[in-house]
Amino acid sequence: MGKMPNNNGIILGDSAYPLLPWLMTPFAMVNNDAEKRFNCAHGRTRSTIEHLLKRRFACLNFLHVEPQ
Questions:
Q1: How far apart are CA 50 and CA 56, in angstroms?
Q2: Could you tell me which residue, 27 or 19, shows the higher pLDDT?
Q3: Based on C-alpha coordinates, what's the Rg of the chain?
Q4: Residue pair 38/27 in contact by the 8 Å Cβ criterion
């Protein structure tokens, strides 16, 4: 665990997931404006990607996955 098979990118995950070298999650506790801006940008980006994927792959609307 912890190794992504392809090192060509990162995945955005929500706060339910651990921070890993290939999985970018928001800051749990915001300490400054830069972290706050990061969390806002992260949330907007993740939301946009989710929306696009769910439109493209409608079956994802019914997929419920929880981290192990």
A1: 10
A2: 27
A3: 13
A4: yes
Q: How confident is the model at residue 5 (pLDDT cuts 50, 70, 90)?
A: low
Enclosing H/E stretch for 33: helix 33-56
| Cα-based angle 2, 52, 35 (whole degrees, multiple of 5) | 55
Q: Measured in whole angstroms, how far is the alpha carbon of residue 63 from the centre of its chain?
A: 16
pLDDT bin (cut points 50, 70, 90) of residue 1 is low
How many residues comprise the chain? Answer: 68
Cα-based distances in Å from 20 to 1, 45, 48, 59, 67: 10, 18, 22, 27, 13
